[in-house]
Amino acid sequence: MAYDIIGDVHGCLDELKQLFAELGYDWHSGIPVHPEGRIPVFVGDITDRGPDSIGCIRLVTELVEQEKALYVPGNHCNKLYRFFLGNGVQEKHGLETTTAEYRSLPKEEQKEIKHRFKQLYEQAPLHLILKDAHAVVAHAGIREEDIGRKSKRIETFVLYGDITGEKLPDGRPVRRDWAQEYHGDRWIVYGHTPVREPRFVNQTVNIDTGCVFGGDLTAFQLPEETIVRIPSSMPFMEEKFRY
Known about the structure:
Layout: E1 3-6, H1 13-22, E2 26-28, E3 31-33, E4 39-42, H2 53-65, E5 70-71, H3 75-85, H4 95-103, H5 107-123, E6 127-130, E7 135-138, H6 152-160, E8 163-167, E9 173-175, E10 187-190, E11 199-201, E12 204-206, E13 216-222, E14 226-231
Parallel strand pairs: 1-4, 4-5, 7-10, 10-12
Antiparallel strand pairs: 1-13, 2-3, 6-7, 8-9, 11-12, 13-14
């Protein structure tokens, strides 16, 4: 099996469609399908901040429902899920863009989006083991000893990274560079922290190249171990990138 692992989309639907075209997918019945049977894998954070989060929900859920793609949730997915559950989440840090889109929909479409996204989230693994590609996909990464295991601590790590509990001046959490300590032989493919270039450290790669902040939307192809990138149409915001 061959995979195209796609970094944080964050509502950038046009760039996602361009990336599928660049990867050689054809559109059949409203979804992209690769003629050689390649499988797209989403690393989470498909919504928030970008111009068309609802469109991204529709496309990703349709792909997953038709068993044409795989998906793991990110922290923004978790927050949207809790919003749909009716929990008292704060509509900020990008969620407000998605909820504004959602509230502008007719009531029946709101029900459809809520149901499909909740189902997508509830059925998704927190991290995905791709045995035939000798790889693991996790939104913010995962420690080698935690692969295949479940706990609240692992869930926090997978969604938010190796957070210290401290905050940066802009409110973002301080995160340790866990990839420096990874010494496994399986690929860990992740996103979450925007980087200017795909960041290879040991056998890990961060493919969140900040499309919503004016960077690129990136795919990592396995087993080829190649990178494919589409430039963003969004304004470039250098301060949002860590490396």
